[in-house]
């Protein structure tokens, strides 16, 4: 067992002074320099090393090397530091060349080291590093009081270093959060700011990211005075990479649609271009529809959730066929264009699987049947009302369970 730390009034004053120096900066690198300077002054050592110790592997990394003619990683005694890492006790030797407790290593012999002080930096029960100082034969000895001071300094240094590390982590996390918030704002700005005005139609949409940014997106845009397009999509990944992929896919679909391509050509061409640079391994499911003022509509499904259709005359909801593959996955996507003639008060609901796969407390999915039931029950409402009814039904089903996935819904009501 190590000797108890017993500091003289002089050493207590020294400890107080150097603690102030060590804690004078929360910037991590500056804190390291402050600790090294304070340790060398307190112990009158010729060289000082601050070493980080990996809690899991025990590997040692030099953070700061000061004094002497070298700042190399091999300048300190690994024999001594390994013993301190093992014992987690401060160690003093004034006869490093011949101390029979340790087999002198190459650094001790080559550098003619005589006196070595080494102490663990502990945060509660965690070993985060080691402070090491030494002198050559010409520089004199360390005393037990120096060892006690070193142990006390190491404890304060550990606190200062941990505070600086946590502060740096908080600053970095704050920067990342600001960047993610900016990314979210940019992503939201890519969503439609208003719905196109096409005779006979009303629309409403909902977009909710499960994280700061989403892989889901929707788009509703006019093609001409009598036609508009609806896109809903879901990128395979989550977070910032999915958001970037989403922005690229959205831009391509819009661009191709405005060149006059039909829906199959629009999605096929987008698929081909994404495949040319598809190194991320991500893909995106897409449902793309073009609707006309008279009620005619065409639809293409690229691996997405099927479109929900409510027929007012029959008071019945059904799902359009599934089809195609997600874009960015395979060439020669087997896409088909389906025609659908809308009658007055018919309703279309586009959605992502974040809605139908929303879970309740026992792990059941909200599912397509409950979605169709909600639409059927509230089909007499306008598009915003139907959307609100869907969200209310899903919210009541899930209860307090937080959505795991992004949720996106677009409701289109044809009034004729």
From the structure above, extract its key features.
416 residues, Beta-Lactamase, Phosphatase 2c, domain 1, 5-stranded antiparallel sheet
Folded structure, characterized:
This protein has 2 domains: 163 residues, Beta-Lactamase (2-Layer Sandwich); 224 residues, 4-Layer Sandwich (Phosphatase 2c, domain 1). The protein has 10 helices and 15 strands. Helix 2 runs antiparallel to helix 5, helix 6 packs across helix 7 and helix 9 crosses helix 10. The chain is 38% helix and 26% strand. With 416 residues, it is α+β, with helices and mostly antiparallel strands.
The helix-strand sequence is HHEEHEHEEHEEEHHEEEEEEHHHE
Q: Classify the fold: give the CATH topology of the largest domain.
A: Phosphatase 2c, domain 1
Number of helices: 10
**Strand residue percentage:** 25-35%
Number of strands: 15
Mean pLDDT: 83
- Measured distance between first and last alpha carbons: 89 Å
Q: Reading side by side through the largest sheet, how are the strands ordered?
A: 2-1-5-4-3
Q: In CATH, what is the homologous superfamily of the largest domain?
A: PPM-type phosphatase domain
- Globally, the shape reads elongated
Query: What is the class of the largest domain in the CATH system?
Result: Alpha Beta
Number of individual domains: 2
